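Blinded run. Sample ID left blank on purpose so nobody reads anything into the name before looking at the predicted structure. Input follows.
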Amino acid sequence: MFDYLGVLVSVIFGLALTHLLTGLSRVIQMRSHVRVYWVQLLWTLNIILYILGLWWGMYWWKHLQDWTVGRFLFLSGYASVIYLLSALLYPHEVAEGFDFETHFESNRRWFFGVFLLALLLDVPETLSKGISHLRNTWCSCRR
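Blinded prediction complete.
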């Protein structure tokens, strides 16, 4: 079952990363024609690292033998929230003269609300793995 879910989560996380990297590349390419906002760039880097960390941590689920529809829906929903978080940072279309500070400020409440939701969803996801996986992951990285 993990292979099935892993593909879905990977696609959703991949779309989130693609959206962030596409938005970042637009900012770089259009930097002389748009108003760049350093806070948004910092959050972009933060969310990229967050997604990569989550993606790495999701691999633990391959050890689970007893899958339920609830777990499947929860992890799929969690990944979808992460995509939404990424989508709020950059619009799909950027025209010349676009102000990224205005865009970030107008979406700030939604962005931080979705970020809070993602952090809250991380608690049951981590707890359902059990505390033992944290030590095992840390030790295997040191070898």
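Unblinding after everyone has recorded impressions. The chain has a mean pLDDT of 85.
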